[in-house]
Design a protein that fits this description.
Elements (H helix, E strand, L loop, with lengths): L15 H13 L1 H13 L1 H7 L10 H21 L2 H18 L6 H23 L23 H14 L9 H12 L8 H16 L15 H22 L3 H15 L4 H21 L11 H8 L8 H21 L9 H7 L2 H5 L3 H39 L17 H7 L2 H17 L4 H24 L5 H7 L1 H11 L2 H31 L5
Helix pairs in contact: 1-2, 1-4, 2-4, 4-5, 4-6, 5-6, 6-8, 7-8, 7-9, 8-10, 9-10, 9-11, 10-12, 11-12, 11-13, 12-14, 13-14, 17-23, 19-20, 20-21
């Protein structure tokens, strides 16, 4: 099948159908198809349309740009349909060079054709290397290069798309150019070589500013634009695809923080639509990060605290959709933290189950219900996180500094208590100095006096419960038994877990006791202190 012999002088504006015909021909006759396109580029019909004599023709400037746009679209269709093994040899000298020659234009039709053609060629390169649809980004290897092929003019093409985005009006959405340019960038970032930090930052700022700043479709200039809502949704989808592609190129806590550093000002924006769109993008990013995690060892997730500080306050936003997305982001962050601690993605955590139960309350327009729900949220999440932060600060940092200053050789201040499959193992390994002191001064002397093992263990727990209550009651100047009862309850809990639970179930029981026990005790002390010291207050 030969390429179509079109009388270009009579049909100067090839349609999409003609571009598709060239793509079909390129599947089996790439050389002949490119030759036909080159013949037209060198023909009088095309050269005169751009020369001085075009002033005397009846063809307007807009019609000339349409002709060039149709030619660009033909090159894109040829690149998308060409065999992968032949595409690379013709990519730089013919296809990309021709596309870049038409890059400096203000015509929206030509811009659309360029963005669409670049997107099709980049997608074809990714699919030809991976055998998958690059739109799904399934060929990313995680923490390395894209692995989906390379393109020499990648930086120039991305810069061209960034220029198109900057030229779009910030107060109106009339064409699909934003969506086309963002989609082209999303396919380009999957290819090698990787963008530099400055290029990534420029692309992120421009892409976010081009879409998130748009007014709602029912207001402003968009009110008179037909299909503005569909155009906005398509642009947001392409932007989300681009952000997820950038994340997969740098799949690490640092890469996640980099994206949220650019997304953060939009999440904190005083304008509701901007916050809502930014939170939707944040939810998609965290979901992609969670699904792409492939951890082989327990490592710290240092991005947890700054991201929680950014997202958690939005759980009390005035817009219900923002509250919903923010809570889902917090849940996803805590799920990622569990994965970094060594748990599987489907691990059932009591804290996450409690957060899931708050969804309905956050959707309720009643201010009293919303206040109560936000209070429950604030009671569950920070308490557990503060305890984990305190553990790392004191046992891992402070004690090691003191040991270094005193040249103390024994640095075993804790063991892997987070993997505890029994309550007894947790108390034996989370605080080694106190555990050894209790063994030396309580447990072993009692065994030497003939006391049974279980009785000696119970006595050690009760002594620890006394000191816990003492350290809380004296500073607060009130005697309550919440800390004492919490520690004493560890005795039957330890027996139940060791008797009926094994493996992951035992570990889940230990974490449930930590996540539920401490917040309940803290809330009881706060309640009693408030009642005793603030009488008559509401």
């Amino acid at each position: 099948m030969d390429p179509p012999k079109i009388p270009w002088e009579f049909h100067p504006y090839p349609s999409r159908g003609l571009a598709s015909c060239f793509g079909i021909c390129a599947r089996n006759h790439l050389e002949e198809t490119l030759e036909k396109l080159e013949e037209f580029v060198k023909s009088d019909a095309f050269r005169k349309s751009q020369g001085l004599f075009s002033l005397f023709k009846e063809r307007s400037e807009g019609e000339q740009e349409k002709q060039r746009g149709a030619l660009v679209l033909c090159y894109g269709r040829v690149g998308a349909a060409a065999p992968p093994q032949l595409l690379r040899s013709r990519l730089e000298p013919q296809l990309l060079q021709r596309l870049l020659l038409h890059g400096r234009t203000k015509d929206p039709v030509l811009k659309l054709s360029l963005a669409r053609s670049i997107s099709m060629i980049a997608r074809a390169l990714a699919c030809g290397n991976s055998g998958k649809d690059s739109g799904s980004f399934g060929n990313y290897p995680g923490n390395g290069p894209g692995g989906a092929g390379s393109i020499a003019h990648k930086a120039e093409l991305v810069a061209l798309m960034v220029e198109f985005l900057r030229a779009e009006p910030p107060d109106a959405l009339r064409t699909r150019l934003r969506q086309r340019a963002l989609s082209a960038c999303a396919h380009l970032v999957a290819l090698d070589p990787p963008l530099s930090d400055a290029e990534r930052s420029e692309l992120l700022d421009t892409a976010l500013g081009s879409v998130l700043v748009l007014p709602p479709p029912e207001s402003g200039k968009n009110r008179d634009e037909p299909g503005a809502q569909d155009l906005l949704e398509e642009a947001l989808g392409a932007l989300s695809e681009l952000l997820q592609g950038l994340l997969r190129r740098r799949l690490s806590p640092d890469g996640l923080q980099e994206l949220f550093a650019h997304l953060g000002p939009w999440i904190r924006s005083p304008r509701g639509p901007e916050r809502q769109r930014a939170l939707g993008l944040a939810r998609a990013l965290l979901g992609t990060f969670l699904q792409s995690l492939r951890l082989r060892s327990v490592t710290p997730f240092h991005a947890l605290s700054p991201l929680l500080a950014l997202l958690a306050p939005r759980c009390s936003d005035g817009i219900p959709e923002i509250r919903r997305d923010s809570l889902e982001c917090v849940q996803c962050l805590l799920r990622i933290q569990l994965c970094y601690q060594g748990f599987s993605r489907d691990h059932r955590d009591e804290l996450l189950e409690g957060l899931r139960a708050l969804h309905q309350g956050l959707q309720n327009p009643d201010s009293s219900v919303l206040f109560h729900t936000c209070g429950r949220l604030g009671a569950q999440v920070p308490n557990h996180l503060i305890w984990l932060i305190f553990f790392y600060w004191f046992f891992h940092s402070c004690l090691n500094v003191v040991a270094e200053l005193l040249q103390f050789g024994d640095r075993e201040f804790y063991r892997d208590w987070w993997n505890s499959e029994s309550v007894t193992y947790f108390w034996q390994n989370w605080n080694i100095p106190v555990h050894k002191w209790c063994i030396r001064h309580f447990y072993k002397p009692m065994l030497r006096r003939g006391v049974g093992k279980w009785t000696a263990q119970a006595a050690v727990f009760l002594a620890s419960a006394f000191f816990h209550e003492y350290l809380v009651s004296v500073p607060l100047r009130m005697f309550r038994l919440w800390a004492f009862m919490g520690m004493a309850a560890q005795i039957p809990l330890a027996w139940l877990v060791s008797r009926f639970l094994r493996g992951h179930y035992g570990n889940a029981a230990v974490w449930m006791s930590l996540i539920l026990g401490q917040p309940i005790a803290v809330l009881m002390y706060v309640h009693d202190y408030y009642v005793l010291n603030c009488p008559g207050q509401p």
